[in-house]
């Protein structure tokens, strides 16, 4: 496939996912979602909590990421994240645990606006997951 | 000359010690494989992280406004040393080697009349350092409860460091740990994490392709550098745990062998003195018979 490129997702414990035939990846960048195709310009971006969509041909896989950074260079994409899971394998109660935690964090008084925004966003994403 | 009974007891006791060291060796070997794997699996993350930071910092045009975590406070007065050791002993020179390396550094700092602050991670390091450097130790951390090195623990240490840095409690931060080379060789390492080592920065990747940043470089760096600290700590912890098991395995292997040698020696001694006793008895009987 000529329109494909490499992806590697790593978390601190291990290399989470490595593929060389993805055709499109959508990442939840800080200022909105970015779709990356082959020959995208080199980019480094921060991620906010959200869903990474990896499209390989006709297959589509979705992963939830907590945070991280994405780097695209010479048609290889690396995503560094501290926490990631495959939405397909996620358990309901695990997600609801996360929601609870985020809500607890949000109810604290001394958080700044940026954190507040991130947490709200995280809640939104997580909630949309748990309804599926 | 110990009696036969004493010798027999001694042989039994050495044999049971040998059994223990052998068991410890096998446990260490099993653990080693696991921690070696996780050390290797953890490497891509820290390497990638380093690469990204390199790319970012080469993209920064204005060095003055660069985040302090990257370029330092500009001072070189207060040094914070993170000494990462094991929580358990009986692993050969593992802990001692780190401590030795760290002590060298401490002496250098103190002779230059700079302020020294120490954080020990792992109880053995604290035990060895408290005698000489008790007044300098600001914090001791131990992760005895957690079985394996995990990122959560590492980020706890990382956050502590960043908190201290933001409170202007130190200027330079270095970590000490053992790098796992192979089962017999572990190299004690001294690594400066704040500010990031400038030599490394220059020698590595002169990337000519420019990146697009979103949001801008400063903000990414601002978010990424604290994570990098935790990542470096985590890497050190992984390397350390692999080294610890490797070192213990070699130490216990040696101990087992030495115990084996001792058993052989004692057995020979035991047989000889038994034979001597028999001969003595025979002589007594014969000379008694002759005198009749």
Descriptive notes:
The complex is a heterodimer of chains A (132) and B (292). Chain A has 132 residues and is an alpha+beta fold. Chain A has helices spanning 92-107, 113-131; strands at residues 5-10, 15-22, 24-29, 32-36, 43-47, 50-56, 59-65, 68-73, 76-80, 84-86. In chain A, strand 6 (50-56) and strand 7 (59-65) form a beta hairpin. Chain B is of the alpha/beta class and 292 residues long. Chain B folds into two domains: 4-22 and 252-290, Helix Hairpins (Orthogonal Bundle); 34-250, 3-Layer(aba) Sandwich (Pyruvate Kinase, Chain: A, domain 1), CATH 3.40.1380. In chain B, strands 3-2-1-4-5 form a five-stranded mixed beta sheet, with helices on both faces. Chain B has helices at 4-59, 68-71, 94-111, 123-133, 151-166, 198-203, 217-290, and strands spanning 78-84, 115-121, 137-141, 172-180, 186-194, 212-214.
Provide a count of the helices of chain A: 2
- The domain count of chain B comes to 2
How far apart, in Å, are the first and last alpha carbons of chain B? 33 Å
Give the biggest sheet of chain A.
Answer: 5 strands, mixed
CATH class of the largest domain in chain A: Mainly Beta
Most extensive chain-chain interface: A-B, 24 and 29 residues
Shape descriptor of chain A reads globular
How would you classify the helix and strand content of chain B by structural class?
alpha/beta
Query: End-to-end distance of chain A, in Å?
Result: 33 Å
SSE order of chain A: EEEEEEEEEEHH
Biggest β-sheet of chain B: count, sense, barrel?
5 strands, mixed
């Amino acid at each position: 496939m000529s329109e494909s490129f490499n992806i590697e997702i790593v978390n601190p414990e291990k290399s989470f996912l490595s593929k060389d035939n993805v055709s499109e990846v959508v990442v939840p960048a800080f200022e909105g979602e970015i779709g990356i195709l082959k020959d995208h310009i080199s980019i480094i971006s921060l991620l906010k909590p959200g869903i990474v969509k990896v499209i390989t041909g006709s297959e589509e896989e979705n992963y939830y990421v907590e945070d991280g950074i994405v780097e695209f260079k010479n048609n290889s994409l690396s995503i560094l994240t501290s926490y990631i899971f495959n939405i397909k394998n996620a358990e309901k109660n695990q997600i609801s645990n996360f929601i609870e935690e985020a809500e607890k964090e949000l109810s604290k008084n001394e958080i700044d606006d940026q954190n507040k925004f991130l947490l709200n966003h995280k809640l939104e994403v997580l909630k949309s997951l748990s309804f599926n | 000359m110990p009696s036969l009974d004493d010798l027999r007891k001694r042989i039994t006791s050495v044999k049971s010690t040998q059994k223990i060291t052998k068991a410890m060796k096998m446990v260490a070997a099993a653990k080693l494989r696991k921690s070696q794997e996780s050390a290797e699996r953890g490497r891509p993350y820290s390497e990638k992280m380093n690469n990204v930071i390199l790319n970012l910092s080469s993209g920064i045009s204005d060095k003055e406004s660069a985040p302090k975590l990257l370029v330092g406070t500009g001072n070189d007065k207060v040094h914070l040393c993170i000494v990462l050791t094991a929580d358990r002993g009986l692993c050969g020179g593992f802990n001692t080697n780190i401590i030795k390396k760290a002590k060298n550094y401490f002496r250098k700092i103190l002779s230059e009349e700079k302020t020294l602050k120490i954080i020990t991670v792992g109880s053995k390091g604290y035990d060895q350092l408290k005698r000489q450097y008790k007044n300098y130790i600001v914090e001791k951390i131990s992760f005895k409860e957690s079985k394996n090195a995990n990122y959560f623990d590492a980020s706890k240490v990382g956050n502590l460091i960043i908190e201290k840095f933001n409170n202007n409690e130190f200027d330079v931060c270095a970590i000490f740990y053992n790098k796992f080379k192979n089962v017999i060789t572990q190299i004690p390492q001294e690594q400066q994490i704040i500010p990031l080592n400038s030599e490394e920065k220059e020698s590595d990747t002169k990337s000519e392709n420019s990146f697009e940043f979103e949001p801008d470089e400063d903000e990414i760096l601002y978010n990424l550098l604290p994570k990098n600290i935790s990542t470096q700590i985590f890497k050190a912890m992984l390397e350390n745990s692999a080294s610890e098991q490797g070192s213990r395995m070699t130490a216990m292997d040696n101990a087992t062998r030495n115990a084996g040698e001792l058993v052989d020696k004692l057995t020979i001694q035991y047989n000889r003195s038994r034979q001597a006793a028999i001969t003595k008895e025979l002589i007594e009987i014969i000379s008694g018979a002759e005198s009749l």
